[in-house]
Amino acid sequence: MDSGSDERTxxxxxxxxxxxxxxxxxxxxxxxxxxxxxxxxxxxxxVRGAARSAGDVEEMARNLANRLDLLALSHxxxxxxxxxxxxxxxTMIKTAIAPYQTIGSEDRRTMPQARLTNLAASTFCLVxxxxxxxxxxxxxxRDGREVHVEWTVTNSGLTLDWREEAVLEADTPPRAGFGLSxxxxxIADILEGTATVSAEGEDLRWRITIGGHHLxxx
Length: 218
Hints:
Elements: H1 16-52, H2 57-80, E1 87-88, H3 89-97, H4 105-108, E2 115-116, H5 118-138, E3 148-154, E4 157-164, H6 178-191, E5 194-200, E6 203-211
Helix pairs in contact: 1-2, 1-5, 1-6, 2-3, 2-5, 3-5, 5-6
């Protein structure tokens, strides 16, 4: 019997990485369909943001062009990361949020470096894109306010906190939808991690954790 076969069934063992990669491919296809439905909402949010910060029509046109370029970059990054090897988490976050607003607390203090493996980077690109899109539609980025993102890195893994202030009615559960379920499914099913969303008064908070084997060590 082939030494690489299961002793009970004689069949090749299931490779977890292959299963997770197939799940990621399915998730990408669903995300593409979801993005098509979201595109006009995103453009609306970007136009509002460009108009808010412009003093005249020419400045608004420049702002709008810059934000559309950043949105295109965010789209390309989330698709191409699967073939890019590894990705720096801080860069990924800034790219996801850049079309709408500069980031909050992550810019104001030094966060630990976190470089993700190929599978984790691909997954996080989808997750961060979805969080930014939902924020632009319903949350802090819709009004041009800050999103606060912080993370910690330990030997056991990565914990990321995404917080939006004063975006909910007091203690009202976050709205359900494809985006919320996609984030949870991606982190749990692909990276064997956890993703929880909660209401803290009027604030929305996501906490995402993944194991250390998804991080590239120096």
